[in-house]
Amino acid sequence: MNSRLWPLALCLLALWAGTSQAAQVHDVRLWRAPDHTRIVFDLTGPAQHSLMVLKNPDRIVLDIKQAALDAGYSDLKLDNTPVAGIRSGVREKTDLRVVFDLKTPVDPRSFALKANQQAGDRLVVDLYDREAASKPRPAKTVNESSRRDIVIAIDAGHGGEDPGALGPGRVREKDVVLAISRELHALFKSDEGFRPELIRTGDYYVSLKGRRDLARKKQADLFVSIHADAFNRKEANGASVYALSQRGATSTAARYLAQRENAADLVGGVSLDDKEDVLAEVLYDLSMTNTLDTSLSLGARVLSNMGGVARLHKKQVEQAGFAVLKSPDIPSILVETGFISNPGEAKKLATSSYQKKMARAIHSAIRQWFVESPPADTLLAWRRSENGQEYRVSRGDTLSGIAQRFNVSVSALQAHNGISNSRILIGQKLIIPAS
């Protein structure tokens, strides 16, 4: 080649290389959470960005370096968000500028996520509501007589851009577990003395630490996380209950599941800068031992009840290092309602009738546990001390067996409930007199 043409060839090569390395925005997604709106830009590669907040009118300006738009915004649902509209254009010939026109001021936050085994490169923009941030922390629900409700924090796993496991027919874990969680919430809502709280109320993602923090903020007496299992073999089946382990997983399957669930933050869009080191995290104090004991005992009750609805994968509560269960002061269990990767179980899990059956099994076990062992400052504890404890007869129960369990005489049990013989019925309510 003529030596005079070399500079021109090099310039053309550099221009071609720069163009080929430009990141493409191939999808834009939006989710609304109770306190913020999340917009996710899916990229074909890493890209630098900057964010500006402008006034009169209120708007957010996002500049993405060396990027081009290959997606639209028309399908994004902006109702119930602070965003009035989204527009974009080319800046300085190579950069992408995106402008969010706002209805109300927000506190923005943005970060990039590198590609991993679960998802590609992404740019996340979170717009936090100022009104939500300024709301005072709710006071503890305790009346003058200290007869508070028992708070059950119900956590539907995954959500938003993290669908969780996918089953045949594109049954998504995040949809199934939200439906079961809502059924469970409705059941506890009708129980006097209980106050259920949904950690995730819609289709959006909450970080694993954020789920624990919300449970603590709501002053939960129990944290129950609802999931649907998956494995690389479709033959795997059965429901399971897990508690936290401080010393390692109780089985290879438990370890595999914990690793998969803990990786959800990478899919759900949590900045690696904010991601805690769950191995080095110092959470545990002396109360953890008692918390784990309660988690295991209550989990065993839930597992037993689920056995009346579904085949059990294991007949005992398993343990592993689930990040979402690492609350030292709140008993916490993770319920796997079945294998969504199994065609038969996925078909069941997708039906409303089966979701309700599973919710009822979980509800009755948790309810009965707290009826028998209510926290001291609750309405149920006061009723137990004043009027005796309520018990619902289950399959296999006998009057003498119930009397022995609660350390009362059969005659006292009969007199307190107006029973003249030893005949009892499944589902019958008994009042256990104070011993």
What does it look like?
By secondary structure, the chain is α/β, with parallel strands linked by helices. It folds into three domains: 19-133, Immunoglobulin-like (Sandwich); 150-372, Aminopeptidase; 388-432, Membrane-bound Lytic Murein Transglycosylase D, Chain A (Roll). It has helices at 6-20, 130-134, 173-189, 208-217, 252-262, 264-268, 287-306, 343-349, 352-372, 379-387, 399-405, 410-417, and strands at residues 23-32, 36-43, 49-54, 59-64, 67-69, 83-91, 95-102, 106-113, 122-129, 150-156, 166-167, 171-172, 194-198, 222-229, 240-244, 318-320, 332-339, 389-392, 429-432. A six-stranded mixed β-sheet has the order 13-10-14-17-15-16, sandwiched between helices. β8 (106-113) and β9 (122-129) form a beta hairpin. The protein is elongated and about 90 Å long.
Short précis:
This protein is of the alpha/beta class. 31% of the residues lie in helices and 26% in strands. It has a 6-stranded mixed beta sheet, sandwiched between helices. It has a 5-stranded mixed beta sheet with strand order 5-1-2-9-8.
Number of strands: 19
Strand order of the largest sheet: 13-10-14-17-15-16
How many strands, which pairing sense, and closed or not: the largest β-sheet?
6 strands, mixed
Radius of gyration: 27 Å
N-to-C CA distance = 102 Å
Helix/strand/pairing category: alpha/beta
* Multimerization status: single chain
Total DSSP helices: 12
CATH class of the largest domain: Alpha Beta
Low-confidence stretches: 8-19, 139-144, 272-287
Roughly what is the average pLDDT, rounded to an integer?
Answer: 82
Give the name of the CATH architecture of the largest domain. Answer: 3-Layer(aba) Sandwich
Helix content: 25-40%
What's the CATH superfamily of the largest domain, by name?
A: Zn-dependent exopeptidases
Q: How large is the share of residues in beta strands? A: 25-35%
What shape does the CA trace take? elongated
